[in-house]
Each structure stands twice: as structure tokens, then as C-alpha cells.
Amino acid sequence: MDFPMETQSPPQPEPSAVVMEVEELPENEVDGEMEVLTARVKSLMDKITENTDNPNPILINAISTILESLESRYTNDQGQSSTFTSILGNAGRIMELIKENDAFFQLISSKILTDRRYSVSAKAATARLVFSCLPSWLYQLEDDVLDIIGGWVMDETTPDTLELETLRTYSIGALSRVFTLCLVCDSEPAERFLTSGLPAKLMQILRIEVLCAASSTSEKKASLSKVGNKDITDLVKESARAAEAEARASKSSEADISAAGVAAAEVVKSAAFEEYRKTNDENVAAYAAYKVASALIDDFNAVALSRYLNYFEGDWDHSNPEIDEDVGNFFFVDADSLSKLREKFCIQSLVCLLILWKDVDFLDSLLHEKAVDVCLALVQKCVGTDDGSNDYKLFWHDILKLVCELTEHEKFMVLFLDNGGLQKLLAGPRIPRSFHRLSSFLCTVTRVQSTMRCLCDLPSSVIRQVVELVFEILESEHEYYIARADVSSFLTSAFSYRAVLDAFDAHDGLEKLVNYLHYSASVTSGASTPLTYRQTQTAHETCAALHQYIRTHLLLFVDSILSVSSGEPYKPINASNEAFDSLFRQIRNDEKLGATFIYCRWPSAYRFIRSNGHITLLELCQASQLTRTLQGSLQYIIEILRILTLIRCIRSDIIDATLSNGRAAIAVVLDVINTPANFGPEIVDPALHMLVNLVCPPPFIPEDDFKDRAIADMEKGCCLARESIRENNGIKILLRLLESRIFTSQADLVRRRVLTCRVLLGLAKDNSIARTLSKLELARKLLEINRDLGGKSSGVDEHNKWHAELDQLTIELIAVTTNSGCASTVAADAFTPPLRRIEKAAIVEATPITYNPRQLKF
Questions:
Q1: Is the pLDDT of residue 733 over 80?
Q2: How far apart are CA 279 and CA 282, in angstroms?
Q3: Which pTM value belongs to this model?
């Protein structure tokens, strides 16, 4: 609106419903203001302690008003709010002042709350002040005080006065702050809060507030049309709320409360439309609505304040000018604001309890109190609202925290999804600060197959909205790296499901994911400021997501070649390491399938190359060897490159790639295998597999079958790769790797040597490289390695298969590098295990030989 409200009714519920009217002062006048407020608080405390047997609740509420005003101002200035916001700034100074006054501190922290002689008004005002001061005191209240506060919350009697509503509301608030302190201090509150049924009671109160109040609100009945182009919605709503709060405080019926709200709304609208009809000026009409609304709100506040003062027990003289001077201007907490506060405090308390007792299953008691319906209603109230137009938007972050904690339980998650919970979350406000909660929710969905099935069963339009949210978080200008890492982790798990994968591709997701990684690569390769820990964590999760995307698409590509159904959209695709090991062997040895990778185009791989994804990965690969925090991503990077080199047509793109510092792609990969001490077999083995793909034609292709253009192009690519390896000192690196014994596992050692020999055999197809290997005495090194391994043992397990292949590769390498036919026979004999040769000799010696007598004559 163009015209700000002069008064606030009802006050906003952050951090409480009460806001003192304090003018915004220049910075140089703040200290002077604090001196006045400090003096006022001291005077108020003195007056309260002068009559400890019958303290004036108005004075106690006045101190609360000052604290809440200062806390609210600090929150607005800093743009953040938390349980401990109030201990910062000037509010913290007032709290310390209260704590230093022993008599007053003892009175409000224990005596008034525990002694039955004190009035409900005094207890309610004290509970409000204790709630405000708890963060600064940084201690849990005494057990007897906590028991009493918990009893007020658990009381089954419905509060029928404003004091009782205030007492219960701030009792819940005090417990929420005690539980929050337990989280911060890593301590556990008394278990009696759990066994007494407190979580269920809090959900019951929340259910009553949310579900029952929703049916009686009058805002839906009062239709809002604009005056010209001026929107008077806020004025109409504020007037209706003030009227409803005053009617509710007077114990009117629900019908009368609703009627009061509608009437107030109509008065404001009528004033605006009448003025617009007369002047045809929308600004004048809006100002008329503003004046009427302000007058109505002032009148309602005055009536409600008078009624509130009359609630107090005792015979204080409210007209005492000395008291009025100290009290100043303060807002009482009306019934409507108390209702909103109870919702907020119940939500915060439940979140803390769910975290503190994560291992205790009290979900059934919450479900009995319609926890799913309550959460759905809370989320729904935030749907379709503009900034500042709905008080519940202030609760959005806390609502998301409650939903996320509850969805840790599979049963709740399934019910929440089945009842449209995800759609409501997607329609809610997109506040960057809450991105982490939305991303955490998505991660929780992927943990259990049953919840992922619920997700994949949703309409495709909903799944597309999920993907849009993922990209909104990834591309956000705000530095919410935890949220970005979470949504990347979500994609890693969700890519196993065809429904999510299709929605991702429909939004050009691959290109967007590569672009995000490109930023990380550009920072690591050229910027003077390295990636932060959060940035590297996000880059790691993004690499993991990209890795899973490529793997899943490879499986789908192979299924399409073999005319195999990929299954139902809600069923996960088997993308396990075992499945991929089997697939790689099949591609290598199956002529039909292997030929497809020579002749066919794989769309996903081409899109990746067109986006310069291979360059981005190589840049990250190079950076990860220099930055320890990025090394966790190296396995994903190398495995993606290994998969891409299966495709003949894009191998040349990788071989010809040049990085920003002028280094060749092959050189970067050789760096990985040149430092096996830094990287385990999960990184070195895929790097060797990648080199095998680049330098070795498939085993089922005859050597003389190069008349085929595709095969000829493939051999040309192999020649380029061999030359690049040679130019980048690859031969010496491979020989050192062959002789290295860094790996502790015998199986890892044999497998690494097999892969190294495959690369060397592919290189040896170049005659000049074969001569180089001969000069470097490769044959002698291989014989020494075989003696070092001691021959293979009997059996057909996986280890012995690798051992047998190593023997065969050694024989072939010796034959190629010595260029002698008999050399292979000598090598074969050399690799026959000694026990086997002894066994053969014994058989020959024991076998009788007979000759034809006629043959003996010659």
C-alpha cells in the first residue's frame, strides 16, 4: 500500500505478538534512548518488588513490551530471527539488568510461578516475561517450575479468559525455548515430558488452533475487489482481524465473531468505493480506506485494552500518573495474536522434541491427533500469499522444519504425499532462507523406495515442478550451499527412476547441471580465491548426480539396443556397481552390442559433449589433484569419462581436448595413474579402463577389417590416443605403475597389472612404440612380475580369472615386443606353474612306450 498503518493491530507474531511503539532513532541517539529505557526498567522492577505479595501485572507486561520491542527492532535490522536473537543488541542488556536484580529475578523465575497465592494475571504476565528472558539466562528452569509450566500446557480445561490463554501460550513458548537450549547445549530435558504425552498434547492444541479456526475465519467471506489499480486488501484484512479479536475477547459466539469481521471489512471497502465513485481518483479512495481502517483499529484496540485492564485482579489505581509514566505505551496481547503465537510455539516445541528424541517413536500419538491434516493445513495457509500479506508466512520456515522432522518417519511421509503434501509445498512461498528445508524434504523422499514410488506415481506435471524447484535452488544467487548439495544428492538417488529422469531431460537438465559444474571448474582453474568447503561439497554432490545420470542413461541406451523394457516409472533402475561391471564386460566381449557403440549415436553423450562437459570434467579432474577437498569427486569424474570413451564418435573430442592451461586431456588422466599412492583402485582402475577404450579396438574386430569407414575412423582415433600417451610420457608412467606394489590387496594388484598390460598391448600395436617397449626390456619386467606373483592358484573365482588374463596378456606382450614366434612358446612355458611342470614330467615318466619291432630296425 502507498499509505503505511500508524498502529499495529493485531501485532505481528515475530518474535511475539507485542510490539512497543518506539520511534526509529538516528544512530547517535540510540545510546540516549537506551539510557531512558534502562532507567524505566529499573523503576518498574523497583515498583514490582515493593509489593511482592501482590505485584501489578501491568508493570510486568510493560517490561515484556520493552524487551519485545527491542528484539523486534534488532531482528528487522539484521534480517534474521532465531531463539537467541533477543540476547543480542540492546535487548540482551535489559535481560542482564533483570538477572542482576536478585530480588526481582527470584520473584519472576520461581516465586510467582510456583506460589498458588498469586493471581492468574500475575502468573500470565510473568510467564510472558520469563519467555522473553530465557535465552539470555541460558539455563533450564528449576524442575518444580518446569513441572508447573508443563502442567499448565497439559491442562485439559479449555481456557475461558484472556489471562488463562496468555498463561498457556507463554508456557508453551517457555518450553519451546527450554527445548531449544537443550539442543544447543547437547543436553536432554526430563524424560517425563515425553512419557506424560506432551508431544501429543502439543499436536492436539495445534490441531484445534489450525483446523477449527480455519472453518470460522471471515477473511474468505469478505470478497476483496481493487479500487482502480490500488489494492486495499491489507487494510480490509487488518480491520477484520482487529474486529474479530475484540469480539473474541468479549467472549462472543463464533457467528458474532465472524459477523464482526465481515462488518469491519465492509465499512472499509464501502468508504473506498464511495470516495472512488465521487472523485474517480484511486489514490483519494485508497486514502479514505486507510483513514477509516486506522480509526476502526484504534477504537477496537481501546475497547480491548480497557477490557484487558479490567481482567486484572487486585485494587491498583490504574490512573496513577507515576505508574503510567513508567509503563509508557505498550500493547497487550489480544486473543487473535495469542492464537498465532500458540501455533508458532507448538510447532517449535514439536520440532525440538522430534530432534531430541529421534530414536523414540511417538509418531502414532501424533497421527492420532491428525498430524498429517494439521501440516497440510499449515502449508495451505501459506499458499498464494504475497510478502507481508499473511502472518503465516512468518511461520513458513518453522512449518517446513516440522514437516521435515515428521517426514523422517516413513508412515507420515507416505500419508503426506498421498494427500497432496508435495503439491502444497511446491505451491508455497519460495523464500531462499527456506531452501534448505525444501531440499532436505526432497532428500528424505529418496531414502525409501515406498516414498519414491509415491513421488513417481504423481502426475508428470508435479514431477516437473520438483525438477524446476531443484534448478531454482541450484541457480539461486544466494549462497545456500547446503541446499544445493541436498538437491544434488536428491538427483543422485532420483535418477534411478525413469519418471524423474524424463522430467529432468524435458528441462534441459543435463546442460544446466554441466553449466553449474563449469562455474566450479572455472573458479578452480583460474581464480585467485579457491572454492570454499561448502562450494566443494556442492561440486562433489553435483558430480555424483551427473555420474548417476550418465550411468542410468547408458543402461537405458543398452536396453533400447537389446529391445529390453526399462520397467515401470516408479521402479528403480538397477545401476549398481555389479550391474555395470557385467555391462562393461558385455560391451567388450559381445560382438552385437559392442558393434552398436561403433556405429550408433548415443544422444545423451552427444549432448554432454556439445555442452563441453568433457572439458569441464577434465578441468575439475586437474584441480582435484591439487585440492584435497575435491578429491572425493575424482572417482565420479573418471568414471564418467570412462563411459564416454565407449562411444567411438566422441573419443576424438576427448583426445583433442585442451585445458585452460594448455595441457592435453591425456596428460591429466596420466597424472591420476602416475600417483597411485594418492588414489585408490576406485580411481586408478577407471582411469586405466578409459585408456584401454582409447587405444585398444574391441577384441572381436579382426585386424584386417579396416575397410569399413567406422572401424577405420576408430583405428585412427586409437592411433591419435597412442601418440598422445607417448608424447605425455605415458609409456614410462605405465611401466612404473606395472612394477609398483603400492596396493595392499593382492587382488587389486593383479587387476591393476592386467589393466596396465591391456593399455601397453594397445600401445604396442604401434610398431615404433613396440620397439620402444622392447628397448625398455618389457619382456624381462613381465617375467619378474610373474615370478613375484608366484603363479595362479587353482579354482575359477574372480581373482583367478584376472590372474589368468594377466598370464595371457604377458605372453602376447612378450611376443609382440620381441617380434619372435618362438618367443610366445618360451613365454608360455615360462608361465606354466612349477608344480604343473613337475606333474607333466611325472606323467611322462610313468607312461610306458612301446614300438613296432619293424620300426626298431631303422
A1: yes
A2: 8
A3: 0.79
